[in-house]
Amino acid sequence: MTKFTPKSRIALLAACAALFAPLFAPLCAASAVTERPDVQAFIKEMTGKHQFKIDLNALFAQVEIKPAIIAAMQRPAEAKPWYEYRPIFLTEERIRMGVEFWNKHEKVIAQASAKYGVDPEIIVAIIGVETRYGQHAGAHRVIDALTTLAFDYPKRAEFFRSELEHYLLMVNEERFDPLALKGSYAGAMGVGQFMPSSYRHYAVDFDNDGQRNLFDNMPDAIGSVANYFREHKWQLGQPVIGRAKPQGKLDEAAYDAAKKAGPKPTLSYGDITKLGIELLDDLPREQPMSLIELAMRDGPSYWVGLQNFYVITRYNRSPLYAMAVYQLSQEIKARHGKAAARKPT
Fold first, then answer.
1. Rounded CA separation 28/43 (Å)
2. Longest CA span, the chain
3. Mind telling me the catalytic residues?
4. Digit-coded pLDDT (tens) for 312-333
């Protein structure tokens, strides 16, 4: 029989603690969640407002607060300059995969495009930017992400508390296991990365099987992206954005004010020209416009956005995101068109 000295017993206990700590840490963290007064107040509020089929106390007893999620929120890709952001999404691989995705789901994409009045390449590009065509939809449990941000991220706590409420209602309505669904660190879910409120408002049962499933049902995912764009007033077949350049000396004060106004089109063509900006592409001059400036290594590049560009920013408010979606969509469309032209008739 092995004889343990006091010193060896301490060493053994320390080794055991280190070995089993990863197993028990989640349980301890989970227990702490339900003991928090703010979480208990939320549970009480939700129980009083809604008729849930699940026990919220039992559910939140299994939820974990994830500090890594807070850290991820502090370093979004959209904080990069355009010349660093663009290469993340405009890659040969992502373009090729977009063409393959379009070919694979051509019938469903055509049906969604026709029903909702959204250009097919935009549907494909959104899914390509969000999840690489459904291949990378996120590894965080959605309920962990939303709970962490709702109670430990004061900067946007109100927004994420609302999204957590929508999530509980969504899983209740769609008959999902609330602990099983995974998504991004911000709680976006499925092939198209819908937040819970968007899921409830814009997701569609495109294959009519009785459930809106954006996780592993591609017809629902494709139809839901198209419906989202339709609801935000996408204009089928209309331009999105065009190139521009300064013409002579800029009215710097007025230019800066127009740039800071964001992508919502509120300027007339006359306003754009008065700023000292010349259009390089043929855009409909009767449409409202916005001024978009993107950072390149050798200085800014100038663009004039239209309604459709603004609609893309309703999916993600960053102009960088919208430009990446647009440019990816054009690359995929051109490649897909060439492939279609080569097919024997």
1. 19
2. 93
3. 130
4. 999 999 999 999 999 999 999 9
